Amino acid sequence: MKALSKNHPNMSFAVFYLVLISSFVLPDGSLNAQGPLTPPGAPGPTMKTLDQIEPRTPLKQSDFPLVINAPISAYLTENVTLTDLNTTCLTINASNVTIDLNGYSLTGPGSSAGASGVGILCNTAQTFKITIMNGNISNWRGDGIDLSLSVSSRVTGVQGFVNGGVGIKVGKGCIVSECLAQTNRGDGIETGDVCVIERCTALGNGVNGGEGSGIKVASSCVISNCAAQDNYRSGILTGPGASISHCTANQQNYDGIEAGDFATISNCTTTQNDGTGIYVGFSSSIASSASSGNLSEGIYSGPHGRVVSCTAEGNTYAGISTGPSSAVTNCSSYSNGTGFDLDSSSTLTDCNANSNDTDGIAFASGCMAVNCLASSNGGDGFDFGIGCSILGSKSAYNIGNGFHAGSLNGGCAIDGNNATGNTLKGFQLDGNNNFIARNTAHTNTGGNFSSLAGQTAGAIVGSVGTISADPWSNFSY
Questions:
Q1: Out of 105, 235, 241, 271, which could bridge 214 as a Cys pair, Cβ 3.0 to 4.6 Å?
Q2: Going by C-beta distance under 8 Å and a sequence separation of 6 or more, which residues neighbour residue 18?
Q3: Between 81 and 13, where is the model more confident?
């Protein structure tokens, strides 16, 4: 290989390149000092302790029966079964207690064994923030869970079944969520005032003569997204001030949903109960709900109630029934004993009664119907008492009369209605002193109008041809 001379141009470039590289890789003298050579101490811990991983207390079979007297968070590590009679499995006498059943069960000696014994019992009044979750409580002589002395507590993800008392019981201000209560002798779920019950199911409670309901709550409680079926008494039974929404109650021995005064019910469904489908007390409201196949009324609202956008079908007595001074709006009632049965001073607006066994719409005194339809019913389309107003409504193809003012004392206003194809009369007025105007009647078998003698009435126009009558006239055609 040919050597490069000192003055060769490539030699100059190589020297320059080496000098440039050295300026980057050769450290400054101040960087040449080394750190201390003394080795470090022993390595520190790198793993968490068991208490850091699981800062809770494990509980096993041999720990029970157990009494808790101080705040604790504990969890089961296995199923627990007690065979001793009249024994409570877990007694809580403190606040701030959390028991995670961890998917395991607390099982007693039998729901009829002995005279007492509870799965989990709060035994001290005014304890608070007790939480029971994620497991099964069954076969206790008394209640499955009894936290009735506690406040602001919670039961979630628990199944309470085949207990001799209540499945799950809590006190005031508590939450019960995602629980199942089944085949308990008492109520399935029972609460104090101001509680929340959500996403729970109650099946077949009140067995063996216990006469319990599915879900039973005191005043001012909220119940949502729950289901109750085959319970001895009512599916859902509440005190005053309850709010019930998106629930179903089917096949109870009594009412499907039975709520106290000042209740609000919405988006609920009740079917095939031996009592009333939905029953509420004074000054309550029912909206967007359906009730069918019940052996009493489909829906009953107490005095001063409000029923809106509801459907009743196939109920033995009235589809929708109210106490005095109530309002029913935009509802339908099909194939019931009676379609609508409203007590005095009530109003019916934009409603439809079809194919009911007796009357489509029945009113006591002082009621008003506006823009309603009664068709193909087994009795009268409209049957109403003294002092009622029937306005802008239609009655067609009923077995009885289209409109029947049954009171001898009269005093009704019948204005702007149509009666077509009814078997008896289109308009039957039993008494005097009624106002009847601007009505039309067509092909009613028993006659379009009864005698208007003694009434304040527009003339009946029955001739064929151009209409030139007084605007208050009634028309028969």
A1: 235
A2: none
A3: 81
